[in-house]
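Hi again,

Forgot to attach this to my earlier email, sorry! This is the prediction with beta-D-glucopyranose bound. I've pasted everything inline since the attachment limit keeps bouncing my files.
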Amino acid sequence: MGNANVKSPFSKRFLWGAATSAHQVEGGTHNQWTVWELENANALAAAASYHYHDIDGWEQFEKAAKNPKNYVSGQMADHYNRYEEDFEFLTQLNMNAFRFSVEWSRIEPEEGAWNAEAIEHYKQYVKALKKRGIEPVLTLFHYTLPVWFAELGGFEKRANVKYFTRYAEKILQELGSDIRLVITLNEPEIYAYESYKIGHWPPNKTSNRTMLQVMNNLARAHNDTAKLIHAMNRRYKVSIAKNSVYYYAGDDALLSRKTADVMQFSQEDYFLRKVAKQCDFLGVNYYFSNRVYGYRVHNPNEKMSDTGWDLSPGNIQHALERLHDKYHLPILITENGLADHQDTRRKWWITQTIMAMQQASAYGVDIMGYLHWSLLDNFEWDKGKWPRFGLVHVSYSTQKRTLRPSAIWFGNVIKKLRSAAK
Ligand code: BGC
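Structure tokens for the complex follow:
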């Protein structure tokens, strides 16, 4: 594995793990997304060719992507019932951390009414991680909202933030004794952009003003929640999971450099500056970078994932170093991975990423851990089920799980790196 085998800069406390989110794996959810999927499955299937026909290898996904069932999460990986079996994979892969989200709509199906059974479920869920020596990384909001909260206007209304903080407080009161690391919001700007600017996700709005409003309210939701959680106990470490895209100029032209800077600022710093003071560390999700020529992004696309993303795993180094220089916070990589159904690029991707983390750590970045997206194949939002991000392959017809070869390899790498750690 080349340089990834050199003496490890990763300490004994380094978190090696994987990530998921409730709606994407649990199955049987009822929230704003579930309702939306059922209403939109036919339209999404009909538009699939238009959106994805130029993706490399499209013919392999075409049939699935044109089937309306692809867009309905349904039972998904049935992780809600099979989590014990799934956590065994974490142990097999020598992992010591796992990021997951709690599904708000299960906890509070009606405004102000707590569901004791769902709360008990997540208590047992976290205990099942702890008994395996796995550090739970709890996410409170990963894109899905209870129907009642969406009907009240969701995060469009500042007055609604209080419902989120009340839910957060309840979760920490109930699960908090086994939790140390909390992610309040997953990729808040991606959510605001997809749902309120380009309208691809529910509630399908296309308004700059609303997008900004939602972003501001999400920043407030994070800040209020972080303060509240810290007041409960200082031992909690809180952050958001920030989508990080690294922008770089493709040539020496001043215009390309300036455009890359502006894009970087608006994608990265606009939101982070509002919440950084209330973050104990930075959760970072990294999937790709963007190369800028003049006013436009024009990526090399030498290697692409199944979803057509330009694969530049090594650039995570620059993303990490930049965030370190600007915010001086420890960084937990809360997501990183690719859709690769044939499993031909995942090993290369992880190798490059480990090397980049070594470089970044030599530069001075305090990296707390690396969580691969994803443990299991999962529901890829408006793309549905065809993209395969899992270290573990899931057959949605039989629910059979199979470790992909890259996962077995990664498990051995983790073992080596953990045993070499000081
Ligand atoms: C999201 C995940 C998603 C992944 C791959 C991240 O932006 O947090 O929910 O599955 O990207 O698209």
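Residues 1-7 have pLDDT under 50 and may be disordered. The two ends are 21 Å apart (CA to CA).

That should be everything now.

G.
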